[in-house]
Amino acid sequence: MATTTTSHGTSPGPSRAPEAAPRGFDPATARPFLEQFDRLKADLPGGSLSWVRDLRDQGRARFAQLGFPTVKNESWRYTNLRALDKLAFQPAVAAETGVRFDVLPTVRAAGTSGPRLVFVDGRFRAELSSTAGLPAGVELLNLADALTHKPDLVGEHLGRLATPDDLPLVALNTAFLADGPVLHVPQGVEVAEPVELVFVSVGSDEHPTSFHPRTLIVAEDNARVVIVEHHVGLGTGATLSNGVGEVFVGANASVHHYKVQREHTNAFHLSHTAAKVGGHGVYDNFILTTGAKLSRNEVRSTFDGEHGDIHVSGAYMVRGDQHVDTSTFIDHAVPCCTSREVYKGVIDDTARAVFQGKILVRPGAQKTDGYQQNRALLLSETAEIDAKPELEIYADDVKCSHGATAGELDDQQLFYLRARGIDKEAARGLLIGAFLAEALDEIPEEGVREAFQAYVSAWQNAR
Amino acid sequence: MAATTETVEQVRAVTEQKYKYGFTTDIESDVAPKGLNEDTVRFISAKKEEPEWLLEWRLKAFRAWQQMEEPHHWAKLSYPPIDYQDAHYYAAPKMKARPKSLDEVDPELLKTYEKLGIPLREQEILAGVEGSEGRSPAVAVDAVFDSVSVATTFKAKLEEMGIIFCAISEAVHKCPELVQKYLGSVVPYTDNFYATLNSAVFTDGSFVYIPKGVRCPMELSTYFRINQANTGQFERTLIIADEGSYVSYLEGCTAPKRDENQLHAAVVELVALDDAQIKYSTVQNWYPGNEEGVGGIYNFVTKRGACRGKNSKISWTQVETGSAITWKYPSCILQGDNSVGEFYSVAITNNLQQADTGTKMIHIGKNTRSTIVSKGISAGRAQQTYRGLVKILPKAEGARNHTQCDSLLIGDQCGAHTVPYIESRNRTARIEHEATTAKISEDQLFYCRQRGLSEEDAVSLIVNGFCKEVLKELPMEFAVEAQKLVGISLEGSVG
Questions:
Q1: Where is this region: Disordered (chain A) (predicted)?
Q2: What's the rounded Cα separation, in Å, for the pair B229 and B260?
Q3: Phi first, then psi: what are they for B240, rounded to 5°?
Q4: Distance in angstroms (rounded) separating the CA atoms of residues B289 and B268
Q5: Does pLDDT of B360 surpass 90?
Q6: CA distance readout (Å), A1 to B253, B324, B382
Q7: Does B307 score more than 90 pLDDT?
Q8: Torsion over CA of B492, A362, A358 and A328, rounded to 10 degrees?
Q9: Cβ(B355)–Cβ(B324) under 8 Å?
């Protein structure tokens, strides 16, 4: 009361700096991971490089301070990670070579092949991978190799976009950073074939297994590339995949980054992607989720030059007691950029879906055009959706909107179909399919869209 | 929208005389010593000659408050920590125990309300009625000055119908069983930091009880005025609409211009039983601070309505133009089947004002419906946030919500934010949320200017159009006032 306000004259900061003793974290949960890290760190690739050691130590230090987030943490209020603490995860050991794959997932037509990297429990499997068909100058390799043989290729970018700050999972990944895909597309090069990245979770029957894949994608100016990530599961043991990806999109470059996550329902799938888009650049991200017991995809993208274009969309279908969390953040840091988000999801049984989408328009980012939509379809009595679409806007000459809906299938539409002799289940199937197709339409790459459509149909058929 | 120097000059001239309620009343006051401890709570309770149970309730609240933390972490507001010891928690104009009629009220006070345009003399309004036959724009007013209610009009007339409309401190004596039954039943004393503080130190406020089947024949209104320096105002309003009754209630507030910030932490509880309706309208025009953000009221208010009965309805309408900081989320708990909650809000922030406001709609009963229409206008260097929750619980079969939040930005130094939370646990519930943010379109401006309107008038017209959906929800007398207020609040922001 008897105070004079001086502080609100300062420029509006988009978010508060992380505090010393942050609210909403549980540092005690860090301990088992820290002990494992301290045992393993000498054997991690690139250990002879001081910058790699520093990066890992920073990750370790921050994770030690934070531990896993709790539901008191605003960005985790709907996703509880308490289950992780109970599971006593062991780090994945060198990939079990006994595992055989009859067919690896692909979006390619049968009988064709193309560039592909395969990771089993976070570790690279050279015998399943191929770099055939890539234009000259394009580098596609695994991070462990890159750190050992071509550290300069990754040194400039690794850890620059996804920084631990108040993101404990990024900190944890950074500490354990060891392997994952590295793709570097030089200036002006267009990669015609989609690059497929296959992540297989196998785990162990003896104990829960954790791994921390790290992805680095760099598309220099005027480059173009399509990337398709497949995340699948094979074993029956609990797994934790705590992935972090960094995507650099140069000026006038375009990166189409699609992901389908179909892990087993004993898997925890946590993923953080940070992207930066140069002037006139395009970053097009789409995530399809049907798998995992608990999954969270966090996509944070920032405009780094004017006239950039970011698309962050996705679809999810969950049932049983699955939990799917989509958290997006689009940072309109510069003027004249466009962002578009369309998320649609279907929730059945006792499953729960979370959507948190934030658009930040920083001071001066005039002529911003931001659009966001999320729609959820609840199929059962006990399904739940929690949505938090958020706009934070500090510029006036902008056009931003978001829309959110939640509900069940439309009775009138059902009636229309049934009046034409279609049975109830088939009619419901049609409507659900049509509902999800609207999201899939956001994928401009036809081959990928069709492959993803097939996953949607497969899920529906299994209902 | 570049402004000509002429416009800028004009605007400056207008802005400087903008807050016409900024005067102080020179009146002798009975003020509690600065500071806050159990003795302060006992002092207030003793001043009000309260029964033991109420003192106990206050003390429980105070003890709970001491364990609580000021909520600084989630609202998009920035202000220095408040020193709760550096204020008076009780200030009352010196007067006889309780004035029997207006003649016993200090003429200085009457003059104050006259200046504010608040009618305390019943005959004046009645005279107005005579001039406009057929209509009854009469408003019964409870005037709260700092910590006490100084006068309540039309009491006798209302009493004939069994309506109780009086200061809450009076209700404690007059109908203790009602107060005891409902006080804290919607906003418990442990609810949140400011509501808990209010529970400990609330001084006055209005109490309304509408008996079964009665339709209150006039608008009831409370006018809050903070006058004393270094005081906080903690009023508590409790409105109970018994089965099948209806009441429309208006709340207005102003405060003098002062360079220090003053705290206003009110609690409003509404209870609607079967088939009852409460319409609660607020025009909040506390002193917003000056152009540099010095002074102004910190408005931390907890307002909540419980639709306890079947087919009950609670409607909140607010026009928020004042206060340096607004922290306010009028909410509805839709417990009764088929109950309806509504929230219509226009919030305008200019200069360095900050507002974090919105609503919560908690759907518990079957076929409960809620509508949220929020219009935020941010100008100058102001920051404004809509924060809302729509929660559908598993038993709320057939629940419906429609939310529309629109923000308008005027100038590139301000901010407008939207933070809605949507939680649904019932598939038959249908929730729709839409939000937009834009500036006043060049086309609209051009259209108006082309027809000879000045830029200022054009903006005012467009903004009023933008707010129309909300303003039309206000009772007529208020709507006119509010429209003017919308214009005034934005003066100086164009360019």
A1: 1-27
A2: 8
A3: -120, 120
A4: 24
A5: yes
A6: 18, 12, 20
A7: yes
A8: 170
A9: no
Please, which residues bridge with residue A244 across strands?
A: A214, A272
Q: Which chain A positions have a beta carbon within 8 Å of B409's beta carbon?
A: 393, 395-396, 398
Query: Which pLDDT tens digit goes with each residue over B97-143?
Result: 556 666 677 777 777 777 777 666 654 443 333 333 334 446 777 77
Q: Is the Cβ pair A393, B259 closer than 8 Å?
A: no
Buried b (16+ CB within 10 A) or exposed e, A230-256: bbbbbbebbbbbbbbbbbbbbbbbbbb
Q: Which of B288, B204, B281, B230 is nearest to B474 (CA)?
A: B281
The token pair that represents B221 in the structure block: 């209104």
B492, B380 contact by CB (below 8 A): yes
Question: Is residue A312 a contact partner of residue A322, using CB atoms and an 8 Å limit?
Answer: no
Smallest CA-to-CA distance from B415 within B441, B444, B376 is with B376
Residues written for chain B:
495
Are A210 and A32 within 8 A, CB to CB? no
CA–CA distance from B127 to each of B136, B155, B241 (Å)?
11, 18, 30
Name the residue with tokens 């003795």.
B39
- Residues of chain B with pLDDT > 70: what percent? 87
Integer-rounded Cα Rg, in Å, for chain B is 22
CA distance B280 to B220: 10
- Using a CB–CB cutoff of 8 Å, tell me whether A113 touches chain B: no
Most confident of A101-110, A191-200, B154-163: A191-200
Q: Which of B79, B87, B232 comes nearest A5 by C-beta? A: B79
Between chain A and chain B, the number of residue pairs with CB atoms below 8 A apart is 174
Round to whole Å and give the CA distance between B409 and B473. Answer: 23
pLDDT for the residue numbered B77: 85
* Angle (deg, nearest 10), helices B442-450 and B455-471: 120
Alpha helices by DSSP H, A127-167: 143-149, 151-155
Provide the 8-state DSSP code for A75: G
Residue bearing the bigger pLDDT, A407 or B28: A407
Q: How far apart are CA A357 and CA A354, in angstroms?
A: 10
| CA B72 – CA A387 distance, rounded (Å) | 23
B374 interface with A at CB cutoff 8 Å: no
ipTM of the complex: 0.85
Query: What does pLDDT average to over chain A?
Result: 92
Of B313, B428, B423, nearest in space to B371 by CA? B313
The answer to whether A379 contacts chain B (CB < 8 Å) is yes
Residue B74: C-alpha distances to residues A72, A300, B387 (Å):
11, 21, 10
Distance of CA B182 to the CA centre of its chain: 20
Of A400, A402, A407, nearest to B429 by CB-CB distance is A407
Question: What is the residue type of A74?
Answer: E
- Can you tell me the distance from the alpha carbon of B268 to that of B168, in angstroms, rounded to the nearest whole number? 11
Q: Chain B: nearest CA to A119, how far in angstroms?
A: 37
- Lowest mean per-residue pLDDT among A66-75, B5-14, B89-98, B184-193: B5-14
Q: Are A458 and A117 a contacting pair, CB within 8 Å?
A: no
Tell me the per-residue pLDDT of B246-275, one tens digit each, with 9 for 90 and over.
Answer: 999 988 876 677 777 888 899 999 999 999
- Contact B294/A389, CB-based, under 8 Å? no
pLDDT band at B50 (very low <50, low <70, confident <90, very high): very high
Beta bridge partners of B39: none
Interface membership of B110 toward A (CB under 8 Å) = no
Is A405 in Cβ contact with B409 (below 8 Å)? Answer: no
Q: Which segments within B380-449 are labelled E, that is strand?
A: 383-392, 400-410, 415-424, 430-439
At B71 the three-state DSSP class reads coil
The answer to whether the CB atoms of B418 and A384 lie below 8 A apart is no
pLDDT greater at residue A10 or residue B493: B493
CA distances, B321 to each of A1, B15, B22, B262, B489 (Å)? 20, 14, 14, 16, 6
